[in-house]
Amino acid sequence: MLEIIDVSRSFGDFRALDQVNLKIESGEFFTLLGPSGCGKTTLLRCIAGFEQIDSGKILLDGRPLTDIAPEKRPIHTVFQSYALFPHMTVAENIAFPLRMAKLDKTEISRRVAEVLEDVRLPDKANHYPDALSGGQKQRIAIARALVNRPRLLLLDEPLSALDAKLREQMQIELINLQQEVGITFIYVTHDQGEALALSHRIAVMNQGNISQIDEPSVIYSYPKNRFVADFIGQCNLIEGRLEGWESGWRFAIPGLDSIPVQNNNEAFSSGQDCALSLRPEKIRLASRLDASPDECLFSGTVHDMLYLGDVTVYIVELGNGLQVEALLANSAPGRTRLFEKGDAVQIAWRHDAGHLVN
Amino acid sequence: MSRALPKLSAKTLLSLPPAAYLFLLFALPSLMMLFASFRYPGEYGGLAPWYYLEEGSLSFDLTLENWLRLFESDIYLGLLIKSLFIALLTTAICALMAYPVALTIARARKGRRELLLLLVILPFWSNFLVRIYAWMIIFSPQGAMTIAINELRALFDLAPISLMFSNVAVITCLVYVHLPFMILPLYANLEKHDPRLLDAAQDLGASRSQRFWLITWPQALPGLFAGAVLVFIPSLGIFAIPDLLGGTDGIMIGNVIKQQFVESRDWPFGSVLSLVLTGFTLLLIGLAAHFGRARGSEGKA
Question: Do B196 and A89 touch (CB under 8 A)?
Fold first, then answer.
């Protein structure tokens, strides 16, 4: 188990990490997610030991890591640039950590052959890294970092250099690999889709702080604040005021009717200004809608649209000038554009579809 | 095919002038020297005729004497070996001194890097001989350095020494003159090293010295080899520096070759010595390149 307790790190006036607290369980696939400059890579480098921490503690299985040199930590990193040694063959690259651990020769060659089998590249043992494709380099870098069974594997945006198709394939491989080896993975990325697909838990970071730590589905469905809601996936943020009525909570949108909402957050009380986060895929869209009693209904006009292949995004302008994004899947054959700019449409969503954030 | 043809001829055309230049001024003179090494010297320098036409019969006047003379006394081969040793020592000292400099430049900030490189090549802006004369002043018995060293030696009751006209003076000046030729290729090599490889090696358990010997050193070898060639070859054949700073002690093979051509007027023997020097140089470079390549391709086999 890795514990990060009140860790801070500044570069001059810039606070890269501001009293970060985190607990990562053994065997977990944990992701640090955030925009560039949020501190995720700095935190990773602090765990690896390449970066000193100004204050706080990092404990691995209860033992402080702070005084252990990076080369002595039972932690290996997969670098964004792979950092394969160009003057060594694939087999020599993978053997490197085993040589450093002073294993004997037969044991080294046995383990190298084994791990090459695991990453399905046994015929590449005597190739030099230059002769490998991006995906192969990636697998070799992972094999090299895993071969002597570290307690933690740190992955620094390892898939960002691959094309979209290969990335998806590598994501599946990573999930399977992590399950097989059972080693704790700490994964850094700015790609929210990747984080949602891979992780057991995600920590969303912003400006040196952790905004939210939760399972992917919770992060997506119940973002804690505007930043998380906005950063993870597409999201409508509708400003308004929470009102407590006898019949339940209502959300007053300036210039429109107030609508019933669910309030999952005890911190919010009546009269509070907040925002309703509403995912585009939760909104129904048609030229005429028959709203059920547990839905709210609005009329508007199509302001803009964006054809994305599988879905089309419509931006609908409501009476008060508020713009709401809604998705329609292009599931019917030949169906790409149901509406044109300026068409009058209706949108509806369930009362419990939105989630309040501040 | 018809398209490949003009491309090929353009390449050939472009390489013609340098090829002609090298043939006229390098290959041809070398062949002439090889020929001269089998001829007799002329009475007042130059070469004696290599054939005679007497009474209609042709006779050749060629000899192996010049080559045999090489082995008659151990002076020449001894001097060759001493010169090899001095050139190797110069190369080694240059490498040791150049490495930290090249590393500092390679890791410096962008703007600063250009300034440091400028400083490295600054000595080239003044004449080679002028710089050697400067060393004569430094090494002279009245020079501040000699006086300081002898004052220091006097403190320990040691006899005063002379720095001028010694092997030490020659090597010092050889290193001074050739250092930039080691720094520049080494810098060009080190500058390309990816610093993240060192992070990766450390991350995988390599200590500081392991990181140097397993990551930096093997990658630096090509740069080091290029610098070594640029330092070793000119150092081996140089005569100006031992002439001015070496005295009788610090003489090198280059001086003897020059002597044969200029003072003894024995062009054939001068040619022999010169060819032996060239042969040795080629052999050493060839060996070094061969072993360098063998090392590099160890894993490929």
Answer: no
